[in-house]
Design goal:
By secondary structure, the chain is mainly α. It is about 80% helix and about 0% strand. Helix 3 runs antiparallel to helix 4. It is elongated and about 80 Å long.
Length: about 170
């Protein structure tokens, strides 16, 4: 199976799940990518305490915003886990039922080419691995988004030091 066939297979898996995969993706990208916001809020708090902030919110408002932001992140994490688990179980069930259906189409005298324990193990674990793999893509995208935003923020503060840290 080539890379192109594998990509087509996973696109079909995600299409089959409908909105579940896309909801998981949105929550995962948001959760992973938004890790920079508490740092920006903390920076604003310290800027306010030192008197170097531009006109804006006071420390109390920024602390409340930080707490609210963490609550939003926790809710997005819970939602992302829910939709991710739902996608995983949908895909695993679909692959298992399709595999069993095709095995039952074989003539009665035809057995599976492996031991029954190995067949059950493959049905359980291999189907789970296939259903789990697409769930990593949004997390990678979210972490990449976080890295890009963090790089931009750091570069605005001190480009030379940012390049040294990145290199």
């Amino acid at each position: 199976m080539g890379t192109r066939d594998l990509a087509r297979f996973f696109i079909r898996l995600t299409r089959f799940s409908g909105r579940v995969f896309w909801l998981h993706s949105a929550f995962a990208i948001f959760f992973a990518g938004s890790r920079v916001v508490p740092g920006l809020l903390t920076q604003a708090i310290f800027d306010d305490l030192t008197g170097e902030r531009p006109a804006g919110f006071d420390v109390g408002t920024l602390l409340a915003a930080t707490i609210l932001w963490q609550i939003v992140r926790i809710l997005s994490s819970i939602s992302g886990q829910y939709y991710g688990r739902t996608f995983f179980l949908q895909q695993m069930l679909t692959l298992q039922s399709n595999t069993l259906r095709s095995m039952l189409r074989l003539p009665g005298a035809t057995g599976v080419p492996v031991s029954s324990g190995d067949a059950v193990n493959r049905l359980n674990h291999d189907a789970g691995e296939v259903g789990d793999f697409p769930l990593w893509v949004p997390w990678v995208m979210g972490h990449a988004l976080f890295a890009i935003i963090a790089f931009i923020v750091m570069a605005r503060i001190n480009l030379g030091l940012t390049l040294v840290v990145v290199l």
